[in-house]
# Entry
Amino acid sequence: MKVFRFSILIITILIFSYCKKEKKTVVETDKKNTIIGFNQNWSLFPPLTPALMNNTLLLKPQMIRFPGGTITYSWDWRTGTKIGGNPLLAHPVEDLKTLQANTHVQYVFVLDILNKTINDQIEMLSAIQNLGINIGYIELGNELYLPQVDFVTVFPTGTEYAIKANIWMAQLKNVFPKAKISVVLQCRDENSVNTRLNEWNAKVIAAINNTIDAFTYHIYIPPGGNFAARKKDFEGVVNTTNTGNKELWITEYGNQNDTTEVNYYRSLDSLADYIENYPKVTIALNHLISGSIRGKISKDGNSFTTEGKLFLTRAEKKK
# Structure
């Protein structure tokens, strides 16, 4: 009888130990894996010199946005230039392959759902795919909730935007079945006097097809603002917008205060930490690599700005 009880005890201990190990394994594999990188206005990107590509590599981006934000609506992908812009800063699609070969980045592609046809944008993505670049992430437009005349004319509310996005999404999924697709939501001041802006999220959510993969937000600390206030505003919007279990993509974030402001870099660092670790955020892209005073690399690509040195430090910590 004692032998039997002792055997039962041993078996119980072994089962308990096994279950404990199994539980531990689950916890260890359930880690957040956010894709980190940069939004880039490609009309401002310097020529892809060895110095620029090497400095970009040092920043360790996993993803770069193409062709950027508002530039999407004036980008001629066939020439690689901004319509009416500087032809000396041309970046044809072949440059994406060159940059990828030297930095190992992947891309998120912003499509011009405002001015272009779906066939034109599929042609662009196909040309890029034919270079050996994976079409894995697609955004349907950029900040279309803003009260710009052309935005409002084509999309009077988020409903019209979602209806067109559904049509584009179906055709894109047919050609690029493995690509994840996102539509734009806003996280501005929810007390704005602009009714269209206030109602944008609810109308998009109500009309968008559930096969959508993600929702895009942009988060900037506004001039005169601070990280704590921006965090509160963002959470107020996100917590009242029913995105369910869909991914959240932050494809632009930054600090719009003057770089001489005493807490500028500390606030930006805090914002980066916050976004990269926020639940459901799977893409976090800072604005931008090169092309303005808030770029990480100088306009010629040969040296790092103070902001760039901050992100170099952040990259080193992720080793």
